[in-house]
Each structure stands twice: as C-alpha cells, then as structure tokens.
Amino acid sequence: MGAMVLEIFGLSLSIIGWVGVILACALPMWQVTAFIDNQIVTAQFHWEGLWMTCVIQSTGQMQCKVYDSILGLRPEVQAARALTVLAAILGIIALLVTVLGAQCTVCFQGTNVKSRMLLAGGVMYIVDGLLVLIPLCWTANIVIRDFFNPHVPNSNKREMGAALYVGWAATALLLLGGVLICLSSRGQRAMPVKYSASRRPTSNGDYDKKNYV
After folding, report:
1. Which residue from 5, 127, 131, 139 puts its CA 20 to 30 A from 40's CA?
2. CATH number of the domain at 2-37+70-192, out of 1.20.140.150, 2.30.29.30, 3.60.15.10, 1.10.3630.10?
3. pTM, whole model, 2 decimals?
C-alpha cells in the first residue's frame, strides 16, 4: 500500500513538472528588460524567449515577433530549444513507461518486468529534469554575467524572467517525482505473489502446495 502511495504521488508530481516544462518552453519571458538607474518611466520593455521576442509599450500594447533564423540565434538559445523539446518528448515516453509499470495496470502483472518498467520510468523523469536544468542554469549564468559586466550598456542588460522560475520549479517536481517512483518500484519488487491463479485439490481433499508461489 505504501509503495502505491509513493507511486501515485511521484507520478502526479512528475506530470505537473512535465506540464511546467512545456509552459517554460513556450513562455517568451526567459530574459526581460532590467530597470537600472532608477528609471521610473520607461517607454517600452522587452521580453526574450526561445521562440520569439516581444516589445511591450508603456500604453500596454504588445508586439511579438518569431525569430526568423535558427542558425542566427545565440548558442544558449539553440541549446535551450533542443533540450526543452527533448525533455517534453521524453516526458511523454516516461509517462507511458510508468503507467505500464504501475500497480493499477494489469500489464506484466506478477512479473519482475513491471517493477523494472516502473524504475525505468522514474529514471527517465530524473533525466528529464536534468535536461531542463542545463539550459535554465546556462541562461541564468549569462544574464547575471552581463548584468554585472561594466562593458555592457544598461539598455542591453537583462534580468531573469518568469519562465526561468517556472522551469526551476518544474525541474524540482520532475526530480522529486522521479525519485519517488524509483522508491516505489523497490517496494513493488518486494511484494510477493500470494498464490497462483489455479489451485487444484489433491486426492485427499487438500490443496496442492506446489500451486502456491
């Protein structure tokens, strides 16, 4: 029973984390305009994401433009695109593998394959979280480095946007959920099968002990 609780809780956290990865990938707020020198009134500020850049006017009007060229993007943006998309795809595969190995499904019931599939699903979620963590930390490092670089003009300095924080929260959920799923697979492997499907009585009226597992 405890293994099933860990399994359900871990899978729920992992699914929420996977949704957070997709949200962080789509949001155009990886880098936002930094307000420096006590600028109270600003005509416009910028959002920069993985797929588009947006300009928000002081009147509230927002204009977004999708990047024209992939090869013309900065290396960190290209890597973030590839890793976040790969993480989203891996999350789908991990969900399918985990569901097949879950106790609530009848696939591979009573075999060691079920616990191994559950363990594989947990490991996939952990790898998924690490894949997302790489571009998040890379982008945050560049933002912080440029912010404190005196050779970078104030107009070109950026701050960490909301998408980075969403991504970090999603990473934490994926790592925690993956660990809980791996722990639940150990508990599932330790659960013995009480008896076999068929129990035939012997000639003296007792059940054959060989039918018990």
Report:
1. 139
2. 1.20.140.150
3. 0.81
